[in-house]
Amino acid sequence: MKILLVEDELNVSRFIKKGLEEHGFSVDVAYDGTQGLKMAKSRIYDLIILDIVLPYKSGIDVCKEIRNNKNSVPVLMLTALGTLNDRVNGLDSGADDYLVKPFHFQELLARIRALYRRANSVETTDKIIKIDNLLIDLDSKEVRRGKALINLTAKEFRLLTLFAKNKGRVLSRNFIAEEIWEHSFDSGSNVIDVYVNYLRKKLDHGYEKKLLHTVIGMGYVLREQYEDQR
Ligand code: CA
Prior knowledge:
Layout (H helix, E strand, L loop, with lengths): L1 E5 L3 H13 L3 E5 L2 H10 L4 E5 L7 H10 L6 E5 L4 H9 L4 E4 L4 H16 L7 E4 L2 E4 L4 E4 L2 E3 L3 H12 L7 H9 L9 H14 L7 E4 L3 E4 L8
Parallel strand pairs: 1-2, 1-3, 3-4, 4-5
Antiparallel strand pairs: 6-7, 7-8, 8-9, 10-11
Helix pairs in contact: 2-3, 6-8
The chain binds calcium ion.
């Protein structure tokens, strides 16, 4: 997971970068708003930690410009002030959450994890999800590939919905187990593989373009097939 940290106070940015790297994150640091915005535009980050009071361009303005660019990367704002006004301005500018300085590192870590999780398993507001010619109607629970209706069990439908809401993202067996089965079986069980195979047969059998893919050693992903894999 790659994080951009925009923070001009050297001791704070060092402390955050070091702590996050110890937890397995990869961290790029920018020391002013202009540089931060440039980096946010030039690379893909999983999350941006953005201080508000920065040289050249404030965190509020950086965040607004990121959002104006149609970039929905989760943004966690840091503020030393913590007044209601700051908080409102931060959230108005498009930030997802904010943290008041000084904070405990564990608090920062918890916020990051929560934001990342929210961003990646978002409850979509779309009632119909479309992947290639697969259509999933979340209200009527009707699933079609092209014109063909696909009959799924309740469990298979939940599994498909989980994949569809995380379209293009590889889901580990652990993640699937937590989301669908709440770990109600022992982890050595192959129940997930069995269910994914049921689902795959119903979705992909007889179609040239496969949608549900195995990523060896990592898990499964629902996505349109890349041209070069055909
Ligand atoms: Ca600052």
